[in-house]
Write a structure and sequence with these properties.
Elements: H1 2-27, H2 42-51, E1 61-69, E2 72-81, E3 84-91, E4 97-104, H3 124-132, E5 143-151, E6 154-163, E7 166-173, E8 179-186
Antiparallel strand pairs: 1-2, 1-5, 2-3, 3-4, 5-6, 6-7, 7-8
Organism: Leptotrichia hongkongensis
Signal peptide: 1-24
Keywords: Signal
Length: 191
């Protein structure tokens, strides 16, 4: 009798172990266990999104950043163009558009011309190259958030770079190209 109870208990434990393993695998179906070097990069993600908005250019991209959504790494961003707000998520490995949302914003005065400051003199590409120059060894695939924001009455690019177990954050004045703020956080895991 004891052998029968022991056998049933062991069988139950094995079934439970298999179901937990299968569940863990299914929850991570998009986690391809790839390094950031296999990501398509911010530039390609931005170009994929811009192709869906005829007439829009890099200056209309309000933000784009690397994020984890539903178990997969995506580039999420916003484009403001012609009275519309376009929100998107693009798979960081395949380049597939996994989310696309369009909202009318022309009646919201808070968004009118909020994406580009008339005094802006440097492009997002120039701001990215300024930030990359501060992190030797990093490349385009290491960018996280890239956003044009308005802080303290001026246009500022907020840029994140994930490289060598560290997160580098830069605030770059969009008029002058001057780095006006930096922060570095060191982590124990790879990005």
């Amino acid at each position: 009798m004891k052998k029968k109870i022991l056998s049933i208990t062991l069988l139950g434990i094995m079934v439970l172990g298999v179901s937990v393993a299968v569940n863990a695998k299914s929850r991570n179906k998009y986690n391809r266990n790839v390094s950031s070097n296999n990501y398509i990069g911010v530039n390609k993600a931005m170009n994929i999104a811009l192709k869906k908005v005829p007439g829009a250019s890099n200056s209309h991209v309000k933000k784009i950043n690397l994020d984890r959504e539903n178990g997969r790494m995506v580039y999420e961003g916003e484009i403001y163009y012609n009275g519309q707000e376009y929100e998107f998520d693009i798979d960081a490995v395949t380049g597939d558009i996994v989310k696309w949302k369009v909202d009318e914003i022309s009646n919201n005065p808070g968004y009118i011309n909020n994406n580009v400051n008339n005094s802006q003199t440097i492009t997002m590409e120039k701001a990215k190259s300024i930030a990359l120059a501060q992190v030797p060894g990093a490349n385009q695939s290491h960018f996280g958030k890239i956003e044009l924001d308005h802080d303290y009455g001026r246009a500022v690019y907020e840029i994140e770079i994930f490289y060598n177990n560290s997160k580098y954050e830069f605030d770059i004045d969009a008029s002058t190209g001057e780095i006006i703020g930096t922060q570095v956080k060191h982590y124990n895991k790879n990005y």
